[in-house]
Q: What sequence folds into this?
């Protein structure tokens, strides 16, 4: 598998990274540890050397620590993220970082990201002197490189780049549907120009680009998943593409796609066609939810991502009956119980106005 120089860090991780957010879970909701251990090690044995987790991915850091025992820690570049949104004082930085090192069973984190930067979270970065704490942790050897993941618009992306001249890398959402969304391709090129390595998340838009409608599939030059990944690997400014793999077959497939990928692999015409397919896809989706479940903070326990998923599926396949049948299985976790408290909206990386969307859906589904 191809490796690329990771900005000025001296690291050369593989172009495919394992996103540990969507690991396979058992019926009781906990991560299937044995599956995770076997699968991540299989991927590493087949050339994958980048592993990405976060403090807020439930159970993920602890399981990642287990997976990386028996000599696997030394084989990978390990990335995890600070939940800046949860900070209430400057001391939270050291408390959470020490907790992460313990969960991950390591004495250092290679790549430490400020998680999901947007305007509101950046206020916490400034208020709690997060970058000073990060530099101190770097001097102590607890973290090796400082970066951020990002969910806001291109102007604010530039503001964050300008705010600190020692960023080593960043992580942005990008796929052939989102070329002009959030940081977008312009943000990718700008970060690269400034010497940052760039990691890509949501290459399949929360799985939506893996199961495209027929009219989109007909426009693509090949397998939808391979096309989506190749669109990113084709660009030399992209260092790592993260895939949140929760099935063994996905891991095998993605490893095979990565093994034949390289920069400059697509023609200009293929790229243009895929961007056109992305525009068609965008018109087929009414709510830009990726199913990340960061909004799982609802006091009414409303099934937000499930409701958005069934509505998007209905828009794609026109099957209102199936959507109503799925909705009926949600019990009291339905849209009409939303009290518009806005607890969830702060958490949504896609900036969806969740209560407004739920109000619309409550009218449709009752
Ligand atoms: S706004 Fe509605 S969906 Fe969001 S947290 Fe409040 S009750 Fe739950
Ligand atoms: S509504 Fe937003 S936070 Fe919730 S699952 Fe969708 S994208 Fe994630």
A:
């Amino acid at each position: 598998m191809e490796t690329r120089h990771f900005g000025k860090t001296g690291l050369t991780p593989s172009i495919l990274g394992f996103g540990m957010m969507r690991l396979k879970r058992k019926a009781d909701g906990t991560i299937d540890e044995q599956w995770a251990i076997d699968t991540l090690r299989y991927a590493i044995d087949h050339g994958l050397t980048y592993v990405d987790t976060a403090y807020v991915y439930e159970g993920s850091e602890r399981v990642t620590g287990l997976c990386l025992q028996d000599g696997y820690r030394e084989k990978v570049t390990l990335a995890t993220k600070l939940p800046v949104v949860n900070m209430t004082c400057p001391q939270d930085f050291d408390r959470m970082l020490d907790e992460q090192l313990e969960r991950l069973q390591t004495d250092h984190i290679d790549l430490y990201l400020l998680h999901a930067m947007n305007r509101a979270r950046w206020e916490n970065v400034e208020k709690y002197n997060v970058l000073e704490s990060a530099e101190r942790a770097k001097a102590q050897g607890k973290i090796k490189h400082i970066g951020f993941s990002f969910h806001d618009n291109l102007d604010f992306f530039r503001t964050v780049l300008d705010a600190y001249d020692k960023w080593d890398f960043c992580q942005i959402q990008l796929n052939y549907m989102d070329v002009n969304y959030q940081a977008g391709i312009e943000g990718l090129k700008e970060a690269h120009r400034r010497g940052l390595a760039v990691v890509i998340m949501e290459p399949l838009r929360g799985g939506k680009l893996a199961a495209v409608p027929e009219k989109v599939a007909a426009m693509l030059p090949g397998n939808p998943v391979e096309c989506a990944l190749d669109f990113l690997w084709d660009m030399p400014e992209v260092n790592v593409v993260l895939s949140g793999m929760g099935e063994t077959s996905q891991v095998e497939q993605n490893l095979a796609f990565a093994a034949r990928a390289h920069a400059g692999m697509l023609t200009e015409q293929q790229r243009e066609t895929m961007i056109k397919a992305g525009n068609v896809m965008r018109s087929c989706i009414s709510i830009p939810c990726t199913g990340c479940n960061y909004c799982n903070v609802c006091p009414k326990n409303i099934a937000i991502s499930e409701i958005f998923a069934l509505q998007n599926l209905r828009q794609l396949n026109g099957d209102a009956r199936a959507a109503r049948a799925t909705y009926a299985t949600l019990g009291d976790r339905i849209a009409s119980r939303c009290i518009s408290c806005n607890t969830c909206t702060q958490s949504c990386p896609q900036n969806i106005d969740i209560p407004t969307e739920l109000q619309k859906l409550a009218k449709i589904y009752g």
Notes: Residues 304-365 form one domain. The mean pLDDT is 96. The pocket of iron/sulfur cluster (ligand 1) is lined by residues 298, 300, 302, 304, 338-344, 354-355, 358 (CB under 6 Å). The first helix runs from residue 33 to 45.
